[in-house]
Amino acid sequence: MRKVITSLLVLLSLCTFAQDRQYALRMVEDLSSPAMQGRGFVNDGCKKAAYYLADEMEKLGLSEVQLQKYSFPINTFPRKMKVKVDGKTLTPGYDYVVHPKNSGQKSTFDLVWLPDTVTCEASVYQLIDTTSLDKKMVVFPTKMENRFNRGVKGIHNAIFLRDKCYWFTSHSLPSHQDCRLMMRADALPKDAQRIKVDFQSKFIDDFEAYNVIGCIQGSVNPDSTIVFTAHYDHLGKMGKQALFPGANDNATGTAFVMSLAQYYAQHPEKARYTTWFILLSGEEVGLFGSQYNAEYPSFDLDKTRLLINFDMVGTGSEGIQMVNSTVFPEITQVMREVNTEHNCVETIKDRGESCNSDHCPYYQKGVPALFIYTLGSENNEYHTVTDTPDKTQFTAYEGFFELITKTAERANEPIFNRKP
Asked: In this predicted model, what pLDDT tens digit does every residue of 144-170 receive, in sequence order?
């Protein structure tokens, strides 16, 4: 009889995780749908996602659900966008993306090709007279793509060839002097001679954004807190056509946090401490949402035993990577013990201190904060128009979910207590 009961409990546990997985997949589908406009900065994409998530928190029965409003600057591209090479129209997002610091451009340029042998900036100046580039656009080979962020002094109009087009955003004032494009190498014929560009940017000084917040009151020690975070914003749209769905980045992290919220709402006794679920915006622009929330938190930072941030967790065949794990080795060891006992994920890989995601502003305030992302080649999309929900597998979802919840259960150990 004991074996039967144990088997039933295991089966019920697996069914619960399976339900959570379906909930997470549905959440990714909704957040990545065209209706959300890429959860970005045109057509109220970010706002639509915020209201959707707040409504979902209300449905789950979370306490203190709120929209925390703040603002930041952002350069956007809300209107039509056209690029033609020798008369052939290219597809925005797939064939090319514009530099996020560009302003509006309506010009025709002659193409000046740099040879594939160019590997450094000095070679560029040997081949090109940068004083005579009026109405010309320089084509850089793929080896020079690392110059994307810095540009090359004296060259204002440029194409940087890449194997795949991935995009970013910018909160800086746009440059009216530069016209820079990132283009898929296959989209630009080697004998192309002329390019025509026509697009406009719109700089917004105070884009209104929201962090979405809810919690479950602790069942044992409600004065202490555990926090789960993820950013729900993405790149939105570039022009009228190019939509960046952001399924893996970071509808998956958002969905995972919402799955945790659903779990604790259904099992409030499992929430030993008051558990906060914070979905952040402004990450793609520069961690603005987490910076604001860390400065004006709805929870007591000094009583936070652990904060875990999730970003891009849709894979998992090769385990997980944990940023700040070497900073908090005792807490990391607890997670490793859980993983060994329950065989949750393939491996837990350590990574040191880094300010590469939304855990950072809290960590800088003294909160024990970790950032976790999953590993695996089953999804290599990043900031592309092809980061779609059909590619989301949540490969290690059940084990990963168990790893996080069981680690949270052990937060009563002394190493989780904050120093006075």
From this structure: 766 545 677 889 999 999 989 999 999
Cα–Cα distance measured from residue 19 to residue 24, given in angstroms and rounded to the nearest whole number: 9
Residues in contact with 333: Cβ distance below 8 Å, sequence separation at least 6, in sequence order: none
Element containing residue 21 per DSSP (H, E):
helix 2-31
Q: Which residue has the tokens 């209706």?
A: 35
Helix (H, G, I), strand (E, B) or coil at 317: coil
Owner of token pair 């995780």? 17
Helix axis angle, 45-60 to 2-31, nearest 10°? 150
Range 46-55 contact pairs with CB under 8 angstroms and sequence separation of 24 or more: 46/209, 46/210, 46/233, 46/236, 46/281, 47/208, 47/209, 47/210, 49/232, 49/233, 50/209, 50/210, 50/212, 50/232, 50/279, 50/281, 53/212, 53/232, 53/254, 53/258, 53/279, 54/212, 54/214
Whole-model pTM over 0.90? yes
Please report the beta strands in 41-193, taking only residues with DSSP state E, as ranges in sequence order. Answer: 63-76, 82-85, 88-89, 96-98, 105-113, 136-140, 157-162, 179-184
Ramachandran angles phi, psi of 417, nearest 5°: -75, 135
